[in-house]
Design goal:
By secondary structure, this protein is mainly beta. Helix content is about 5%, strand content about 45%. The relative contact order is 0.12.
Length: about 425
């Protein structure tokens, strides 16, 4: 366990000159933690609706789940080696909660946490680096203070959408680049514990390909989920889920596209599954499908074995749009999947959480929402409970982040 000490000068209130100055500073020493400005109203509210119950239609066997029905492009994905530009340390400062940035735009949609409580944020920056946008990684200590910041990329646009911690203290960064020849391609960078790049590889075809999520494997390789307009049925006018397995050196082991005949099938999250000895023995993906569900987009969850062989895939949803954005393996041997739904009584969009067994069968489902719009983007399990994160515009003016806790049977503990 770790403890974080704070001093009054580390905590400017929202709107104060100290907070504004900290937000534009490039000095790590200027990092501030404005706990008083964090929106706590969501945590105190009881207005989030928990409908409980089996509201989800599981199309199950209605979706073809054979390898011939789900397109498999095999290992045709191109693997092009590249060397990222490392711009070196550029630590930024914080203002509200903790903000990290420079004079222009930054976004860090990906997060990995290490056993010592330190964290790695990944995304893109327009304030530093070699090109228009560069992939950025920010390492913090357990209290959120930045220890280093590095950028990686080309003269074009490069960004990270996923990050996974590795047991040696380093990490995998995945996203997209348009700066290493061709168009936009999946970009995979491996860094060490200090942020120095070990290697980078570009994977793609003749059209748009972008990695959106990654999980580390027990052999220090990685499994990557991407959106592809280059591989699988219907491309390049529609897109498919692309799964890439890479070894510890970043070399492509296999690449497989999955999709159907409709306009779009996509994956947004991936987890590596392990046997009792801790060895990676399969992978689970979550996303959205128009090809295999009931109507419009539906939750789409798929499981592969360690060699990329399709084991099963199911669509879950109703007659309106439902999209899965995050998943985690549970201690019960199943999966928890989160996203959002426009059906099942939602006024706009509600958070949808599914508990699945190891074969993909629905064990429980929970809907959380207000009269506004709620979306969930991530989920993690701790001590038998699920923690769901996302955004809501139903608790005040504009969008706010939210955190909800759900027990192992799908009942809302708090939000």
């Amino acid at each position: 366990m770790w403890a974080c000490a704070s001093t009054p000068e580390d905590e400017p209130t929202a709107g104060s000159s100290a907070a504004v100055d900290a937000a534009t500073s490039d000095s790590a020493a200027g990092a501030t933690d404005a706990a008083t400005s964090a929106p706590d109203a969501v945590a105190d509210t009881t207005s989030a609706a928990d409908t409980g119950g089996p509201v989800i239609v599981d199309s199950g066997g209605a979706q073809p789940d054979t390898k011939t029905a789900v397109a498999d492009t095999g290992g045709t994905t191109a693997d092009t080696a590249s060397t990222p530009v490392d711009a070196g340390p550029k630590d930024s400062s914080t203002a509200v909660g903790r903000l990290y940035g420079g004079a222009y735009n930054e976004e860090t949609p990906a997060l990995a946490v290490f056993p010592d409580g330190s964290a790695l944020l990944a995304g893109y920056t327009e304030s530093a680096g070699a090109g228009d946008w560069d992939m950025v990684a920010i390492r913090t200590d357990a209290c959120g203070k930045p220890t280093w910041t590095r950028t990686y990329g080309s003269a074009g646009k490069d960004e990270a959408r996923g990050v996974a911690a590795v047991s040696d203290g380093g990490a995998w960064l995945v996203g997209s680049t348009d700066g290493f020849g061709g168009g936009t391609e999946a970009y995979i960078v491996r860094i060490d514990a200090s942020g120095a790049p070990k290697f980078a590889h570009v994977h793609g075809g003749s059209s748009f390909d972008a990695a959106v999520g990654v999980a580390a494997t027990s052999d220090q390789g990685a499994i990557v989920v991407a959106k592809t307009y280059s591989f699988g049925p219907g491309t390049p006018s529609s897109h498919n889920l692309l799964a890439l397995r890479v070894d510890a050196a970043g070399k492509l082991v296999w690449g497989t596209a999955f999709g159907g005949a409709e306009d779009g099938d996509a994956g947004f999250a991936v987890v590596a599954l392990s046997d009792e000895a801790g060895k990676t023995d399969g992978f689970a993906f979550a996303g959205a499908t128009e090809s295999f569900g009931i109507k419009d987009d539906d939750f789409w969850v798929m499981k592969l074995d360690a060699a990329g062989k399709h084991l099963w895939s199911n669509a879950y949803g109703g007659t309106l749009d439902d999209e899965a954005r995050g998943l985690t393996a549970t201690s019960a041997g199943g999966l928890a999947v989160v996203g959002f739904s426009r059906g099942f009584g939602a006024v706009e969009e509600d958070v949808l959480v599914l508990g699945l067994d190891g074969a993909g069968k629905v064990q429980w489902s929970t809907r959380l929402g207000t009269d506004g719009e709620e979306r969930a983007y991530g989920v993690a399990e701790s001590q038998g409970s699920l923690f769901v994160v996302g955004r809501s515009d139903g608790f005040g003016s504009g969008d706010d982040g939210f955190l909800a806790r759900i027990d192992g049977k799908g009942s809302l503990a708090w939000a």
